[in-house]
Amino acid sequence: MYSSYKLLWLIPTILTLLLSYTNCYTITVDAHAEECFFENVEAGTKMGLSFEIAEGGFLDIDVKITAPDGAVLYSGQRESSGIFTFSATTSGRYTYCFSNQMSTMTPKVVMFNLEVGEAPNKNNDKKEEVNPNKLEDMIKELGTTLITVKHEQEYMQVRDRIHRAINESTNSRVVMWSIFEASVLLVMTLGQVYYLKRFFEVQRVV
Description:
The chain is α+β, with helices and mostly antiparallel strands. The chain is 47% helix and 31% strand. The protein is elongated.
């Protein structure tokens, strides 16, 4: 009976892990533009950023993560995808920026996830010493793994859409090139027939 009650109590924990602390966005960053997002967290909070470029140009963008004191925690140039996790060293506002300033005219479509863990609790250590709960830790780890799997599925969908677009574009170009070649061959054939016809007509007159 106690185990059943305990499992029922852990179900909301799983749902909280799956539905909270993860923000999924899809944005369009125009050429020569920069889009930034902010998260206010406490020191010691685990944070993460994962992103994927879905459309636009060469599928690349500049990424930067800045701490409240202005220190650059992560900086990437012309990246197509990436995952970066860290623990907040100080309390305050952390900034995530996607920059498309290197592009002259092509906007970029970016799909990304901001993950923010639970704020550290000063009483956690005392509670763990009094009543250690390994099952709850396992449930939390399982919830984190499920979130990772969910993100991977979303990225696979984006990659599938990108590859499908590339295949369709390549197929369209092949079809257009085939039509062009057939048109050139047809014109050359008609030209040769016309030339030979004129040649034999001239021979008869002579």
